Amino acid sequence: MADRDSNGAADATEHSALDTALDASDPIAREAQTFPRLSAQMIERVMRYGSEERFAARAPVFSRGDRSVDFFVVLEGSIEIFDVDEHDLPQVFVVLRTRQFAGELDLFNERQVLVSARAGEASRLLRVKRADFRRLVSTEADIGEIVMRAFILRRVGLIRHVHGGVVVVGPAHGADTLRLQQFLSRNAYPHRLLDTEQDAEAGGFLDCFSLTAADLPVVIAPGHRVLRNPSLAQMADDLGMTETFDHATVFDLAVVGAGPAGLAAAVYGASEGLQTIVLESLAPGGQAGTSSKIENYLGFPTGISGQALAGRAQVQAQKFGARLAVSRAVTALDCEATPYRLSLEDGATIRARAVVIATGARYRKLDVPGYERFEGQGIYYAATAMEADLCRDAEAIVVGGGNSAGQAAVFLSRSCGHVHVLVRGEGLAATMSDYLVQRIERSDRITLHACCEIVGLEGDASLRAVTWRHRQTGTETTRPVSAIFAMIGAEPNTGWVHGCLELDAQGFVVTGERAGHGADSPYATSRPGVYAVGDVRSGSVKRVASGVGEGSVVVQSIHRFLHPPLA
Ligand SMILES: Cc1cc2nc3c(=O)[nH]c(=O)nc-3n(C[C@H](O)[C@H](O)[C@H](O)COP(=O)(O)OP(=O)(O)OC[C@H]3O[C@@H](n4cnc5c(N)ncnc54)[C@H](O)[C@@H]3O)c2cc1C
To answer: Ligand 1 site: residues with CB under 6 angstroms?
Structure first.
């Protein structure tokens, strides 16, 4: 057990900017920022937002699985934060003392909290109710910054130490194991994998839960609940990752898709007073969330991982009050209804007066026999640390000549034995940024194969070998490759708006003048009050920064639509 109070928590008057804090590599500084102690003067200000309560020793303050937990500050005594072990015994991993506060990111949303808290001894705590907590962080900016930074760092700590998480049991290379892990990682949910490829008994877990290999993968949830190969929606619901909504509510704005463009629309919409909901089929971040490093986004000279960017944007949107439903694909837009009605995969509906479509695009598939069999078991569409681990020291292929392919090749070359970049064209110069082309050319761990295409896949449970053919000479090459990263352009995610909006020949949403609404907004679609931003929009620049820009700017047009000026 770490007693954080005795571990160097500094007075919170000495704080630096959020970004500096998040990049801090000094463990003591990080500890102080994760569990800060508010100054006496700050406590005086916080007192105005809450009321004092007395707790007996060991009295519960909140429990894992609760929703809508309040914000607690220790005035006297202590709060112990704990998880339960496999014998259901509490394991305290943090003790918060005078002028320290409890809580983490779930204080900004309605998800179930991940850990429990109790009074360490007879204690006097300040309870700040949810609505007052929101007022506190937005009004008292200095305190809000300390709290926000601490909450982000605490979630990082929960993930790192798997406090308040779940155990995934299954074969590391199994497509379903990967599917579950990707979902948990991309939603910043703490978890660890018991890899049955390494240990067939998974450390006794299979016996303990009467499971056989046929049941795998499983997720062991709190209370020893076993979820057998759950769908993402089932797992999200079971773990309380999805917010609950009053379906009678009419939102001002529904944003469909939580990629960079959708998250930007949510931040600007919510911060400008619109009651905003974001509906996301998978996890925040979109395509950008699968990028190992974005180097051309303004303000991050050393680059930022897509997941880190998305994580911050999500917290920012929630701080301003935006609601976020993950694992909730929108299946249809009823554009005859007023307000607009969006149908979700689970049969529920959401009503909103304005809609922003930010559903982006998804990667195209290769046309090779046996392709589907290896999807998720050797064929991937993202190159994050998780996929890189799966092809450590082995040969990998990146297919594609765009920037995403270039980034993936450079990133994978650090851990894979060798990376082959395959393109059908003559080279990379016409399609990839020069800095990436140069890195690929200079690397002795990457080989470019121009004018080539994959013609054969071999393997059993997972991919073992790949054959490619030179399109001009017909020469075939077979290599022992365990991972293919397919990055060959994208198709828009617009199947769900069919019949409702004007689409271009490729299926992207037509906006602005071409949609007959140029005077209103370049992002207006053929339906009043429905806008499209980011990669899903016909003619858009397919970049993070442009998506963020469009998502931010569109909110002005939504205000004009919702509150038209009097004639
Ligand atoms: C590997 C990779 C690396 C990249 N690197 C860079 C880079 O370095 N710099 C750069 O500028 N750009 C980069 N890009 C491009 C950039 O990521 C995209 O341009 C950007 O993410 C587009 O943002 P978006 O919000 O419009 O759409 P997306 O990012 O595609 O997000 C759309 C979201 O909508 C969700 N969605 C789809 N359908 C539905 C539905 N029916 N219901 C609910 N939700 C739905 C998806 O799950 C997704 O989360 C990269 C892309 C990839 C794939």
So the answer is: 256-262, 279-282, 286-288, 290-291, 294-296, 329-330, 358-361, 382, 403-404, 407, 493, 496, 534-536, 542-545, 547
